Amino acid sequence: MAEPKNAEDKLALIYENLAEKLKEDIIEDVVKKQDRPLKVYWGTATTGRPHCGYFVPMVKLAHFLRAGCTVKILLADIHGFLDNLKAPIELIKFRAEYYKFVITSLLKSLNVPVDRLVMVFGSSYQLSEKYTMDLYRLSSVVTEHDSKKAGAEVVKQVANPSLSGLIYPLMQTLDEEHLDVDVQFGGVDQRKIFTLAAESLPKIGYKERAHLMNPMVPGLSGGKMSASDPDSKIDLLDLPESVEKKLKKAHCAPRETDGNGLVSFVEYVLLPVDGLKRGAKGRFVVERRKPEEGEPIVYDDIDTLKADYKADRLTPQLIKGAVTKALIDLLKPIQADYQSSSEWQEMTKKAYPPEPEVKKKEKKVKNLGTKFPGAKGGIEAKADGHIEGAEKDRVNLATGAEEAMDNLDIKAKGSA
Question: E-assigned strands of 259-307?
Answer without folding.
Answer: 284-286, 297-299
